[in-house]
Task: inverse folding
């Protein structure tokens, strides 16, 4: 039996970052992971491989459709080697997960491969490759999430698939029907649309990316339609049936009429659910809610004080960077420090092209709360940098308090806004006003100039370039 200061269960972004921070703070730390590779969903079958395929498919589409306008002529037809694309994706994943191995060694963290199961509040058995029994002063549960489905859908992983299978396809679908118009479905839909698939998105709500600002939803819908993606909004899926070569999806449209969609693959992308199977939470006495989430207080403690939970298994957005922040916070709390997370300032990103990024309150949220606000918006196509690169879709929208001018929300669609949103997060962390952003010098020509112009529009309705 081995004894530790902290045992972290799960090696995704929340778990491995938490383990590193614990080790940095001088705690004897172990990390338990059920799979052979570290990194969890994000590094293995989520964030990293999906971005690799988004980048590769973007290169393919640009070569096919856009190089000629730059004066670059490609002789002969542009062909796709999907196996090579997938091989590159796997290489990126392998390199990234090996980086986590290096960090564990560097920080002298003991890594144990196997399923961690509580025997009681103080004891964890590791069943698998490294069979051991561990005791610890503190436990951090970071076991993440897995794809959710609908009760009447059978995921066969052949024709009816989740994001995991969609990241390792051996052929480009002829017609990919996606159930769900959220982040994952749209990103993977764009990948396969670029590669030649017909893509149809069936969404229950009346708009895609429904948790983001309505203006972003409208803009992304317009752009993706232009790229050939078909949308069927306000459609309630009733059933999915598959045979060897075909999938049929039955749904009710907004009028209550039954409609059918037929494709060779159906991607079920209706969100994710907490993964706590096999953890033995009942033996540890750890409480979960009706959604399967582990219940925690503001310090991310469960009802058993020395057992913490972070990331996708607890309330809040299922985002890798949210899990990382929580992992660091718990480590520092255990060490006696007083860390803090402002959940309102955790940005959200969709990695389609153009990208979509948000932080703070949406316009719909401010209206619902009765908050008086000002709004300023600036189109990307008015920027010299956007015209130079050909990335003219999108905008930056800034919402600020009507009385104080404090920034309340920043919402972007455009090239590289996944990186650009950090400017808004920084400003809001220091409670800047729209005028503060408007008075900052922004390099020219850059996409970031749209932030300054939107701030000018919000402050005094005086953007300079429209």
Result:
């Amino acid at each position: 039996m081995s004894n530790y200061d902290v045992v972290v269960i799960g090696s995704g972004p929340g778990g491995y970052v938490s383990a590193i921070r614990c080790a940095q703070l001088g705690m004897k730390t172990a990390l338990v992971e059920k799979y052979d590779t570290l990194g969890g969903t994000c590094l293995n079958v989520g964030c990293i491989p999906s971005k690799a395929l988004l980048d590769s498919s973007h290169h393919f589409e640009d070569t096919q459709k856009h190089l000629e306008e730059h004066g670059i002529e490609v002789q002969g037809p542009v062909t796709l080697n999907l196996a090579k694309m997938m091989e590159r994706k796997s290489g990126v994943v392998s390199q990234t997960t090996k980086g986590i191995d290096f960090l564990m060694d560097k920080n002298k963290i003991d890594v144990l491969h196997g399923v961690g199961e509580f025997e009681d509040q103080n004891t964890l058995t590791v069943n698998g490759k490294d069979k051991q029994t561990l005791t610890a002063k503190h436990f951090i549960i970071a076991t993440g999430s897995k794809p959710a489905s609908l009760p009447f859908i059978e995921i066969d992983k052949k024709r009816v698939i989740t994001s995991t299978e969609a990241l390792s396809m051996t052929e480009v679908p002829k017609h990919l029907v996606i159930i769900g118009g959220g982040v994952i479905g749209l990103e993977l839909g764009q990948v396969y649309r670029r590669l030649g698939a017909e893509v149809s998105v069936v969404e229950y709500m009346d708009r895609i990316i429904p948790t983001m600002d309505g203006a972003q939803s409208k803009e992304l819908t317009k752009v993706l339609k232009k790229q050939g993606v078909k949308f069927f909004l306000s459609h309630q899926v009733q059933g999915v049936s598959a045979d060897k070569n075909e999938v049929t999806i039955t749904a009710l449209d907004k009028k209550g009429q039954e409609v059918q969609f037929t494709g060779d693959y159906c991607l079920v992308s209706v969100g994710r659910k907490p993964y706590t199977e096999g953890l033995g939470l009942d033996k540890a006495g750890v409480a979960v809610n009706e959604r399967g989430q582990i219940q925690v207080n503001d310090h991310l403690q469960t009802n058993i004080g020395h057992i913490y939970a972070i990331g996708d298994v607890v309330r809040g957005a299922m985002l890798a960077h949210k899990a990382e922040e929580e992992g660091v916070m718990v480590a520092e709390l255990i060490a006696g420090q007083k860390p803090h997370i402002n959940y309102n300032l955790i940005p959200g990103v969709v990695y389609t092209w153009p990208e979509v990024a948000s932080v703070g309150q949406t316009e719909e949220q401010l209206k619902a709360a009765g908050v008086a606000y000002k709004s300023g918006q600036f189109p990307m196509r008015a920027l010299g940098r956007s015209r130079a690169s050909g990335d003219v879709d999108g905008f930056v929208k800034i919402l600020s308090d009507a009385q104080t001018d404090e920034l309340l929300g920043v919402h972007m669609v455009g090239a590289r806004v996944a990186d650009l949103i950090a400017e808004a997060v920084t400003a809001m962390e220091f409670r800047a006003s729209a005028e503060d952003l408007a008075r900052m010098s922004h390099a020219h020509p850059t996409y970031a100039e749209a932030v300054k112009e939107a701030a000018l529009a919000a402050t005094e309705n005086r953007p300079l370039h429209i």
